[in-house]
Design brief:
By secondary structure, this protein is mainly beta. It has helices at 8-23, 25-29; strands at 72-84, 98-112, 116-129, 137-149, 154-165, 198-212, 215-227, 239-252, 257-271, 275-291, 294-309, 312-329, 333-344, 353-365, 370-383, 394-407, 412-426, 436-451.
Length: 454
């Protein structure tokens, strides 16, 4: 069984979030809603501005409005039985089927006040295979978010997510793919090695200030890492570290329309294949709000990309980038969609690639006990510089998941679903043979929830 890993950098970041949350909890609990002051309601022009999805680091909601909760502490445990028709992608010339059993405890803390929001979740998974016992592993995932509204117009957002997994299909519930994001700051991992142990960590800090009635300025910093502890499981892929910075200007044209500009710099290093990739992008964006919980965003702009590596000439290029995203959250329906064409650093790959990536998710709650969800993602890329990582011309990955959930009681639920993975990459040994896998799963979950902060 793979040894559980939990990097010190992640613990430091979560500790900082916890300390900030604790030292601000008392004044946060003393706040009251603006409507409770008895003052005159704000006019539409005086309402605080939104931070449109392209400029913000927060993904679209992944639940229906009726399922969204706040101010609670919950503890749960889930068990999953799954069947895979191919657990040895890229290893065996013939597909190898197996059954998998997983036990996953989950802890969630959620506290929201008029000025603060603090959310922390931790999940671990203990997975055992019926026959291919060499694939047994321990998963863990944790995410922490903190928001502080210093004034009605000055807001700080912090977030950190850590995942130790053995690929997309076997990550703990709630962390298998994540929510759809409309932000240009996020970096998608276009390659999924389904049964390779990997560590990912994503941190983001954002400060925004509404300096005028219809004007906002903001800046953010993001850091991402991708590590394969056992390189033999991910031959052809590299460990990666990415750091980026973003500044944006946001103009409110009306209550429903926003126009803005974003300047972004990203720098990624890889090992053991040494390379340094730098991309600077100037984006212009437009966002239209159909209501409080529905929006459509368009983003476009030029990118200047360069890469250098020992023993190879430096490569420089200019290329267009564009993004389309939308999100809609209703009482019983949730939908989110995102597509990006870009020339950006690609986690796991040395070199510079032109990529197209998209993701979609939809949830429909039929009644109090039945809910259906579907999600999918697609990513393709092509190598722009054949002199660096010439053995990786490019390829594509497509995943899809459908599930049906039924509440058996106030605390007990069951879920059945299906996941499909298709991948095709030249030069990556992990996908040279039988690059497809299917999973059929059924799970049973118990959750205890206690209201807090009321």
């Amino acid at each position: 069984m793979t040894r559980s890993l939990f990097p010190e950098t992640f613990l430091i970041r979560i500790s900082i979030l916890a300390v900030v949350s604790l030292v601000t909890v008392i004044p946060g609990l003393c706040q009251v809603e603006p409507s409770a002051t008895g003052g005159t309601p704000l006019s539409e022009a005086d309402q605080p501005m939104n931070t449109p999805p392209p400029a913000g680091g927060t993904p679209y909601p992944s639940q229906t409005a009726s399922d969204s909760r706040s101010n609670f502490l919950s503890l749960g445990v889930g068990s999953t039985l799954a069947y895979f028709d191919n657990v040895e992608i890229g290893i065996s010339t013939q597909p190898v089927a197996d059954e998998m059993y997983t036990i996953s405890p989950v802890l969630t803390y959620n506290m929201v006040t008029p000025r603060q929001s603090r959310v922390f979740s931790y999940s671990s998974g203990y997975t055992f295979y019926q026959h291919t016992t060499a694939l047994d592993y321990v998963n863990q995932a944790a995410t922490g978010t903190f928001q502080e509204r210093f004034t009605r117009h000055l807001t700080l957002n912090l977030s950190d997510t850590f995942v130790q997994s053995s690929g997309l299909m076997s990550q703990p519930s709630g962390f298998n793919g994540g929510a759809v994001s409309g932000s240009v700051a996020g970096q998608q991992q276009l390659v999924i090695v389904p049964f390779a142990n990997e560590l990912t960590n994503t941190a983001n800090a954002e400060l925004s200030d509404q300096f005028a009635q219809n004007g906002m300025f903001g800046a953010s910093f993001n850091a991402e890492t991708l590590t394969f502890p056992n390189p033999s499981q991910a031959v052809g892929l590299d460990n990666s570290q990415l750091f980026g910075g973003t500044v944006f200007v946001n103009r409110r044209l009306s209550q429903t329309d926003y126009l803005g500009a974003i300047y972004q710099v990203q720098r990624m290093t890889t090992s053991p294949t040494p390379s340094v990739t730098t991309v600077q992008t100037l984006w212009g964006y437009f966002t239209h709000y159909f209501g409080r919980t529905a929006s459509l965003s368009l983003v476009a702009g030029p990118a200047r990309a360069s890469i250098s590596a020992p023993g190879a000439p430096a490569y420089l290029t200019w290329a267009p980038s564009a993004t389309l995203s939308m999100g809609w959250q209703a009482a019983k329906t949730n939908f989110a969609l995102s597509y990006m064409h870009s020339t950006m650093p690609t986690l796991g790959f040395p070199g510079l690639y032109s990529s197209d990536a998209g993701s979609v998710s939809a949830t429909q709650r039929f009644n109090r006990t039945w809910t259906a969800s579907v999600s999918g993602s697609y990513g393709s890329f092509s190598n722009l510089d054949a002199q660096i990582a010439s053995g990786l011309p490019g390829g594509h990955t497509a995943t899809g998941t459908g599930s049906l959930q039924h509440l058996l009681g106030a605390r007990l639920s069951t879920q059945v679903g299906y996941t499909r993975l298709h991948a095709n990459y030249g030069g990556i040994a992990a996908f040279t043979q039988n690059p497809n896998s299917d999973e059929f799963f059924v799970s049973l979950s118990y959750q205890f929830r206690k209201a807090i902060g009321r």
